[in-house]
Amino acid sequence: MAAPKKGRRPAGGQSRPGRALALILIAMVALTGGMFWSGHTTPRLGIDLAGGTSITLKAKAEPGQESAVNETNMNTAVGIIERRVNGLGVSEAEVQTQGRENIIVNIPKGTNEKQAREQVGTTAQLYFRPVLAVAAAEQPQPNPSAKPSGSSTASPKPSASAPTADKGKDKGKGTTATPSSSASTQGRAVTEALKAPSPTATPSSSASPKASTTPNPTQSGDPATNALQQKFAALNCLDPKQRTAAGEGVKPTDTTVACGKNSIGQWEKYLLGPAEVDGKDVDDAKGVLDQQRGMWIVTMDFTSEGAKKFQKITSKLSQQTEPQNQFAIVLDGEVVSAPSVRQTLSASAEISGSFNQQSAQDLGNILSYGALPLTFDTQSVDTVTAALGGEQLQAGLIAGAIGLALVVLYLVVYYRGLSFIAILSLAVSALLTYVLMALLGPAIGFALNLPAVCGAIVAIGITADSFIVYFERIRDEIREGRTLRPAVERAWPRARRTILVSDFVSFLAAAVLFIVTVGKVKGFAFTLGLTTLLDIVVVFLFTKPVMTLLARTKFFGNGHKWSGLDPKSLGAKPPLRRSRRQSVTAAGPVDTKEA
Q: Which DSSP helix (H) or strand (E) runs through 241?
């Protein structure tokens, strides 16, 4: 008989368990070291285990638009709020509707909880409006129609220099106006601004075709001009209520007033023309650090349609004088930036001003995920304690401990020495699961909630099932008359196939559950899928190699009665080679005579 070729392993030959064990040991040390190095040595907890904040939002329709509060808009708002909160890394946040006009937002306790509370109800209606006039946000005088004294009059035109809005240059927060000493001076400034040629006068440059049908306030004696003049003069931007009320009920096609802070943090009031570009025209936005200027800015990329609109308005504004060469970036009725334009811009823009890292990234996050289709009022903000969740977790852990104890007891009674391998494998799987959960918290925002704990408990049975399949295949080989070392290798291909199919079904179920469900059930599905993948890793890189090594020991190799692999207790047949030799010897002479 020809000997097998050198360097080739015969079928069913011995594997090299040392490599697999070294690989999983390196992985465990690296992951554990990464966990301690990151400083996150415990998994993040969900709102049911750690507590947090529950916010109730009530949808508010604009006058004459009561039908806007409908199921479609409410579901759209839920999706936007959920993306905003999760965009901040606050995973496991629950956003769901309650009734016809309420949205409940549950935010787990964490580092970004405060930011999430600030953003959930922000409407994020973004408009780019041309600036018609600017004035200081001073307290209005009691008599708006009084004539100013000669010594207290100020120039009706604000005096300042605004940086350019070109990309790569300082954009600033718009112009800084010289404070006027009387309300009548402001009134004359408004009149002059309204009478001046507006870059939005042509219908083609307006935000909506309806803009051409709105009354023209530039006509002398127009009541709209007088009303807007009085509103601008009376506006006190130092009063938070007036700042909020200034933008309420204003349509994109209306000329309006608004408040905003300049580059040195002082409040100013603005007279603004109809909107030329809105938030729907922004394709992407993010807060970044401008290395050249050493300041945080928000960069925006427009859609193809938005780029055309932005190019058209900046082309017109670049031909105007200050302050009418500025465009105001208005977010929820407040001017967040008012840069001047000196050349035509199109594809992108940026918002600059008194941003820090957090405020720039927050604004970029809001603009990226879009504006809410409705306005919401915050009805209540409640702090959720973890007392109830803690009791449930304790009960769940007790149930898990009882289940684990029963599994271990069954393994010890039925498999005896083999239970040592199973328990070691369960310990390795538990360690990897814990370390990965701790690392996934800061990495992807994973938070451990009660359903996730249930998924981890269910995984005990899945992992134990894989060991049982392999042990039973080895026992079947021993019953056929093989010794332990070849039985371990011959049983592995059959057991491997069964384990892979079983784990694939479990992982597929977890994936489908994760995709089609919402809220806390996702935590159960994610944990189930994670532990299923870890089961494959542990069985392939730990259980099988350890079994191969222990098969070489006398205790297991000789079939000790407490090893769980005793041939007598398993009812093993005589050795295969001896039985075959005897049958050939007995049958040989008979066949010869017959021949």
A: helix 240-246
